[in-house]
Each structure stands twice: as C-alpha cells, then as structure tokens.
Amino acid sequence: MEKTNKPLISVIIPIYKAEKYIEKCVKAVQNQTYQNLEIILVDDGSPDESGVICDRLATEDSRIRVLHKENGGAATARNAGLDVMTGAYIAFVDADDYMELNYIETLYHTLSETNAQVAICSFKTIDEAGNPVSIDSLHDESSDENIFVADTDTIEVFTGNEIILQDLQGHWEHVAPWGKLYQADLFEGVRYPKWPAYEDEPVFIRVFDKVETAAASKDRLYYYVQHAGSLMNTAYSEKQRSTTIKMWHERIEYYSDNVPRHNAIRNCVLQAFVAWNVLFLSLHAHEMTKEQKLELKREIRRYFTCLFKSPHLYNSKESIKLAVKCVLTLISTDILRKRYTN
Predict the structure, then answer these.
(1) Which CATH superfamily is domain 9-231 in?
(2) Is the predicted pLDDT of residue 304 greater than 60, yes or no?
C-alpha cells in the first residue's frame, strides 16, 4: 500500500450471523478510494461461518484486524472495536450494509473542509435484493425529503444540538452509528450500554452533546439494507415498549441536569416523548395490557403542560395539534388508530 499523509481512519464492523453479507461489506470498505484504513472486524460469537470468513479476509489484507468475542450484542461488539482502535477518526459500518467507493473519502473531505468534528452523509434504504424501500414519508426513496441539507448547498453545517433536534423530528438515521465519520476523541468516556435494543440512543446524545460543528453532505453514499425480520419491521412486543420507555427516560434524565446548553432542547425532548406515547398507544393499545396502557397515559399527563412551553419541537401550532391528540388518546386509544394505521 502506498504511503500517505492522510490520517488513519478506523472502520469498526460488528458481525453476527452475517456470513451472507460480510464479504461484500468488507470488500466495499477495502476498495474505498480512501485507503489509509484500519478495518476492525468484531466477530460477536457468531455461530455461522462469519468468523472464518473474517479470518480469511485478514490474511489477504494487513489492514484488517479480527476480534473474536463471546456473543454480547452489537453494543458490546462496537465497544470492543472502540477499545482497540488507533485511528484519528472512526467510522462504523453494519455487516449487512455497503457503501459507495468514495464514501469515506467524501466524509473525510466534508469534515476537513468545514473543520467539523463529525461528517454525515445521506443514505439509501434498500431490501436484500437491492430494491428501494420506503420506511416512512420522511425517508421516501422516491423523493429527496430524506436529504436534510439545503438544496442550494452540497454541505451544510449544524451544531450537535441541531442534529439531535432533527432526530427528534424524525431523522432517526442520525442516531445510527453508520453514515458518519467521527473524530475519535468524541468517544472518550463514551461506550454503548448493553441494552436489548436502542443502545445507540444514549451514545448518540452524549457524542453529539460534545459536537460544536457537524457537517452534512446530501450525497447518498451509504446503503442501509432493511431486512424483513429486522427491529424496524417487527410487530409489537413488550420488550420493545419497555426498552423504548427506558430510552426516553434516559434522554429526559440527561437533559434535566441544568446544564445551560441543554435548556435549548430539553422541552423538545419532552414534547417528542409525549408524541411517541400518543403514536405508540394509537398503534398498539389493542395489543397491550391495561396496566401497560395506563403507564403510557400517565406519561402523557405528566408532561402535557410542556406542549404549551417553548422551545417547541416544531412550532406552537404543531404543539397545539399534539395537545388535541393527547386529549383524544386519553379519552380513547381507538380514536386515532385509523389515522396512523391507514
């Protein structure tokens, strides 16, 4: 490999039951136009041939380092990679995803040109056959609505809090580790919790709380593969409900510490939590026990007055609309069900 003055970038890939996808994913990283890479493959106790494939790939490329560990979930796998990485920057890739060959170089250029701490690109959601998938109206592949930067610029700069606000407004991809290039020091003292789901959330808010400048490119360079059995496609489960509530409580607690920089977003977090309760009850109340429904209704009542305070998640008009939905939901969880299920 040619010598380069470009900084080393560590690419961390957690791997579990990915024997069908891992070689394509790793090859996409190996063939990046940006070549000064440290590729860390973390075999999370995968019972299939994933670990064997990783070991073979490592014999073919000195940039690849393989870690084998007992199964603990994607969170522990990412932590294992963070504990050994040596790069100045970090990129995360999911083992079943892939990316354009200029993915890392574009992120690095975006970060360097703006002197940002995090560079973000847009993405395409596809199924296993490579066909576009529409997850929701905000991320409809037939439109450009999922591109959150202004059309007049290729790159736009945000604060970390602005990125967090965009997530609260529906840009869930900001929470995902992929699609970004981070300065490595952002992860000092930050690791993923061992949760059954949504473990990205507490890391996301802690990392972006440190970010003064995040630069976003509207180029769709990352391919997020949506599987039929993935978390986003699963039906209601009590684990999903309870873990999501835990995630929201974690966020609320984090923003309740009276740190001045949190004042501009705390009420938005509360309003987003109220909106989630309304949506979740509308979609799943018929599958929940009486006590489970009462718990979510108590959360709505607890934070209802936040809807009339600023800053607003969107604006005061939308907050009033949400307040009406809250009242309707408290009267009957069936009133809004057709609205959200059609």
Answers:
(1) Spore Coat Polysaccharide Biosynthesis Protein SpsA; Chain A (3.90.550.10)
(2) yes
